[in-house]
Batch of 2 targets.
Target 1
Amino acid sequence: MNIRKTVVVMLALLLVGMAMVPIVSATDDSSRESAMKNTEAAYQKEIILASFGQVPSEKSAYIDLRKINSDPWYSSLRTINSESDKDLEKYYYPNGPMIGKGTDLKGSIVVMINKDWVVDNSVLKEIYSKISERGQQNGIENIPCRFISMGLPETDATRTDKIRPVIAGIKVHSNGEYSTLGFVATDSSGNRGVVTTGHMGVVGSSLYQPDPTITGSFLGYLTAQGSTYSDSSWTQFTSGITSDPKVYESSSTYTTFNYWDDYPSGSTIYISGVSSGVTTGSTVYMVNIYNPYWGKILNNQYYATYSSGGGDSGAPVYEKWSSGETVVVGIHWGRSSGYAIFSPMQGIRRDLNWITPVTG
Amino acid sequence: MNSQVKIVIIILGILVSLFAVVSLTMKQNENGSPEMTDIKSSHGPEERIITSFGLDENNSERTILLKNPDLMDTFINASEADISPYYYPKGPVVGYGKDMNGSIVVMIDEKQETNKTLIKEIYDHLSARGKSFHINSVPCKFISIGVAQIDIAKDTIP
């Protein structure tokens, strides 16, 4: 290659380099700016339950994250945060209301409290006293501490993953078949369990979420089946299974069932199934209908227009009211000539000895 | 400048353009819309009516049943005994109940040949039952539909 060619190639490389520099630095600046905006937005959305000690004001500056590791105040906070964990074990979820603890960007300890917990200020004071004690041992009086309300962290799990606490709309397995978990409920003795489809397994069969190959997937034994007013089953949880009255709608959206109702109201209905995901439609008929699994007529079943597929049996059928509440009204079990078929809540409850859906 | 050098410059030019495009695209994603939940809505299939009775708008009994769901449910429960002998698999009826517009619905197995005499026989039973409720013309439609199938699936794990 002669000199002229070399110069041309080097010029071209220089052009590439010049093009990259502004792009990279613009991205870097904008992402830092964007991160600060996100932090600010997160602070504004906070629901503060209580504050103790000398908490910095809202107008205080945020710590520069590049200097946080060498900052002596944050070094002390981290030590206190870590040491106090040992004192606060009993307050952590699921035994207590704490779902997280750490530091914020303005110099306080932050304790995250499960938003579903009924706030008891005496418990918050107890927690603070433990943190404060550790603060004093590290030379900090009146350590600033904020308690904020927060939902349990949701993962990027798919419907076929193991999901705990157990929620509606995820895969359950029994006797080599799979379907969808309907909803969490309690029986007349207050025992918690789940309602799923009736045509998977028999009374005494093991129910797993998601399947028996996963450690800790056993939910319990099928306790009862419904086949007169519904196609449903009841499984009381074995000990140690946690559950929430929520439905899986996407990997980032677990929606809480606020209410349950005996029958659909006539508005748009939703199902959330392992096979079809979230689909919507409306009710068309309420009929007594022949169910091929049970080989007999089931009373007062609903035909609807939402789409469904194999594996959706048991999926919760629910409504979203204009006032914002989500209301579970039944479980899906089959289809016919392009229609979907589901059992209404009234029939499920009647068949399963009046179980009560858990709502939140 | 010979052709090899020109090719090198063109390739590098393309690389620069590609890099800029990729960077811009990434920025658009960062600021893009939040994750969408893919919700599929369905309007359902066309209703396949074999025959109907008393569905004309002038039939006041249809309005009565529509406006009085308790009466409708009582009628359906009472007439269940009349329909029962015709239920699948002994007979062609795979479903019996109501629609959301005030009509009685009798679902007939789509795989069975339509027997108009049998349909008339079923309706005669419903009509007689209607008279005991002071309903002279029971609004009713017979629709063709498949036997329900359950939505269970075989797992790959036994």
Target 2
Amino acid sequence: MAQTVQTIIPNLIEKHHQSLLDEWQACLKRDGGPSGQTTEAQLTDQSRRFLAELRRGVSGKRFDDLSGREWDSTRSLLDEVAGERAVQGLSPSETAVFVFSLREPLFALLRQELSDVGVLARETWTASLLIDKLGLYAIDSYQKGRESVIRRQQEELLELSTPVIQLWDGVLALPLIGTLDSARTQTVMESLLERIVSSGAEVAIIDITGVPTVDTLVAQHLIKTVSAARLMGADCIISGIRPQIAQTIVHLGLELDVVSKATMADAFALALRRVGKMVTARAQATQGGE
Amino acid sequence: MGEIPILKIGDCLLVSIQVDMHDQMALALQDDLTIRIVQTRARGVMIDISALEIVDSFIGRMLNNIAGMSRVLDAVTVVVGMRPAVAITLVELGLTLTGVRTALNVDKGLALIRRIIDDDAGDLRAGRK
Amino acid sequence: MRGTSVPVESSETMPVASSEDVVRVRQAVRGKAVAAGFSLVDQTKIITAASEIARNTVDYGGGGTLTVETLREGARRGVRLVFVDQGPGIADLDRALSDGYTSGSGLGLGLGGAKRLCNEFAVKTAVGKGTIVTLARWR
């Protein structure tokens, strides 16, 4: 249930703005200080803005509900603070300390200003709940920040690990290393199709020597890739079928509607025939050599 | 005649789909093509979709229909110029273009039609040679 | 579905009652997808899904409306589409969702296919009570 009881916290913050800020900075420094690449000046700036936001948020009618509109800019600020620390790879507690270290000076201020024990208890409780909620929000935001960093790194890694090689005019090779999940399949398809367009290739050899297991899902992903290449006018050959893989495919009853070969060499030979080329021996060297 | 022009190149018909088609246009195209295939005794039908950013199940069915009618009239249908994003989406959608051969562009499409008609194809699909 | 707790950045409602409307739906969804910074493949997927459902709305639902919204959750951006019609409803939803396409013969509502193109997909329908299809794709 939302509290509509007023609190003196906004007035306190306004009245003792500077000393509260100084005390908070002192606690921050003691508990860890500006970490990573955040400079002291930046930290002070963020702290000052946070106090201003806090005062505004707490003055609202439903100040204990952080999802409310009056807390929008506070949440943005915490997103900014947490986001910075997430990108720098700091720990969640280093992020949370930004909010939690405000507790000590705030409580001290309350003790200093309030003589009525009942009121002091109530205000301290309010302040404590608020700091907890804000701190937890900062941690959640940090977590989301970390997740997006990881996601971006994964994407970059995916791109690095799917090279498309041109073996000959009109023949591409795509060596797959590692497991083939749906995210990887998307990247693989995009790389392969783009290369088909730019090289005008009519044959793509997909080598799965480096794919540890082929189960129903992996087979589906392979078939998707083959189908997509076919829609672009390129036929596919799967190469690198190890004996165990061949057995698994039959065992699982997988229908791979595509030519498959054990080795890349065999696949390449077939591909050359398909594009109308053949390999012949050079004429013998004449006397005198070359 | 419908709004989509049908060009004759030798014994092939070329249709270039440039606009975001709606239903009546698609139906008109199917009708026109069938008539033209018979009129010109075309052996190949090439549909250039390089301008299409979206191919949904409706267009897919249209392509399948055209391929079906062509086959009955002993003509080969080749779809050319599919964009990578469209190919990836079609595969995800699970839409198979049955009886439709594909090629990267018009040149390759014509070459493919020649190969099929002249029965010289090095077909890599499983089950064939 | 995450529903109303995700902040909606912009919203636009349009009629979906004719085949010209289907073309307009594609254009509107493209606009929103581009504005949300979608990659080309992601754009193509959501526009294609929208095209499928829009056709259903016209062909089977007796016409209806579409509300296109752009969403933002932190750094993530998304596009959500809500198709509403007062048509006959879908009798066997499970089957409609699982069918995909049956050899292009024209049967099947294509719901399964559209679902595969989206991150979020929900259908609310009852015989005689109309249909609401909500789909969303995130960057």
